[in-house]
Fold this protein.
Amino acid sequence: MRAFYITTPIYYVNDVPHLGHAYTTVAADALARYHRARGHATWFLTGTDEHGQNIEDVARARGKTPKQHADEVVVRFMDTWKRLDVSNDDFIRTTDERHIKVVHETWKRMEAAGDIYLGSYEGLYCKRCEAFYTEGQLEEGRRCPVHQAEATVVKEPSYFFRMSKYQDRLLEYYEKNPQVVLPEMRRNEIVSFIRSGLRDLSISRTSFKWGIPVPGDEKHVIYVWVDALTNYISALGGEGSEKYKTFWPSAVHLIGKDILRFHAVYWPAMLMSCGLPLPKHVLAHGWWTVRGQKISKSLPATRVDPNRLAEDIGPDSLRYFLLREVPLGLDGDFSYEALIGRHNSDLANDLGNLLHRTLAMTEKYVGGVVPRVTPALDETEPHKTIAGLAIRARDEAERHFEALAPSRALEAIWEFIRGANRYVDAAAPWTLAKDPARRSELDHVVHTFLEAGLWAAWLAAPVIPRKAREILGQLGLADAPIRWPTAWNQELSPGSRIQRGAPLFPRIDEAKQAELLSRWIPPEAQAAPPSVGAAALSQPESVAGSGTITYEEFARLDLRTAVVKHAEHIPKADKLLKLQLDMGGETRQVVAGIAEAYKPEDLLGRQVIFLANLKPAVIRGIESQGMILAAGDKQVLALSALDRDVPAGTKVR
Ligand code: ME8
């Protein structure tokens, strides 16, 4: 049987769960649920990272021992995951005995491979990241780029791991296995990081105690990342266990991009040293900001509490929003208004409405009982179209869930749900109901609605598990399993009675929205700037506040020539065109605000100048992977051009 093992990072217990943690965990949950529905042997692991200097400091500040502190915070994580219907099969804590045992084994294996030696370390250490930095990697005031926390000088004896030894092997491995680190952009980052040279890694500390002691030298505690990364194997029971044998070869580590280096360089090097196979995928997702701001302890407005949202709007609406709004891999900006918008349009309007109409018609026209189908009718319109849409949605959803792309799977499923709503109108049961001679046609139509509702529930269940169950209940299938649909119009049993219940996703009207916003947004943040619009996100940040920039700043812009291969309008966006650009072998998709100045057909084959390393953004639901240069301030007057053709992808300086 096929196996699927998915993990989240184990979260530090120095914080309580916020939107970012919820995102990774819900995404992993959806993927795990998809694989379970497909009947694959599935194992989903999450947990907490409880050692390290930072946790020791936080606990001391609270007047607790580190373990007491961890025991309290861990409950917050476990409760949050319950509230969000997270279906993890295990929860690992780095203070678990089973974990400590495997960390010791791992250390000994690396030692036996000749990869650990004693030295001494002097460097700048960030406690929040639990990582060393070079002066050049830190921002002003020696602050770390991730948390803006000040790094301190650390000088102490330390064991080192011979990471340098694995530089070539890692490069070769990623060369041969380009699908391991995803998305591609992140793999490129990692490959150039490795290429720039790997230094041996300090993997023990003596200046604090809260950690796993080094076997045979208890003055040292093991570096928290060596400890933490091992969780992915310790939770399976270590090498040799049945669970390890079943699941490890299929491991997918879902993480945020902040900790990619640890997962795509340190961890694989450790595994190589232990003689163990590498994970199948490391997928680094993007970073959420909240209303345009970085999530931070010091900014209450950014402290979005997933528990509160789940309670007020339902876990499924939050889960759906997080997974639908932004493709896994790209950065996203959270706003409460956008969350409510998705709830109202996709869930209340599209899915809720489909079920509501379906059940009402089943009661009205066929006495509330699942009617029979006439298979031959499936070959006629509009039945044929809806059957085609259903099968396509299932196949596409399958493809995208397999490719770890839940947002795309949801797009495909909603395409079908919207199609099913149109089908209700096209099939016009109200007309058929007037003519007793057309009873079998009426039966067929009502059956098809119900079947569409069932397919929608099954396909979307990985993301909205609670509502999927409710839908099954209302279709009279309370005890039916959640599984993946197979044969169209053959999944329901004629004769069973539906159980119409409360509306699935009650619409949030303006009054309710105002009430929710005042509850969700802390008073001191009510006047916070509005969320950064998608268009603004697509603009480059000003390189320097004003005045001049240095050549080094300019040189960071990766300007290239590119040729327009395809251009099209974006529905309901008068100013935007979607372009596919050839950058010399590589294709990039760009959303450009040039529709008022250029027709799509005028652009084909044109050479443009393209900013290739602009942070990707999602504009009107479409990923934009760069920016083309044009003249004009608010209005585009002309596109950039060269006075003679050069190969696509040529650098512009
Ligand atoms: O790094 N947007 O734990 P951590 C998206 N213990 N995801 C976010 C986010 C945001 N703004 N903020 C946090 C650690 N995350 C280590 C991991 S694993 C062996 C050890 C998510 O508590 C995202 O998954 O700082 C990120 O990688 C993780 O939380 C960091 O959690």
User: Anything to note?
Assistant: The longest strand covers residues 559-570. The pocket of ME8 is lined by residues 9-12, 20-21, 23-24, 49, 228-229, 231, 255-256, 258-259, 287-288, 295 (CB under 6 Å). The chain has three domains: 3-286, 348-525, 529-652. Confidence is low (pLDDT under 50) at residues 528-546.
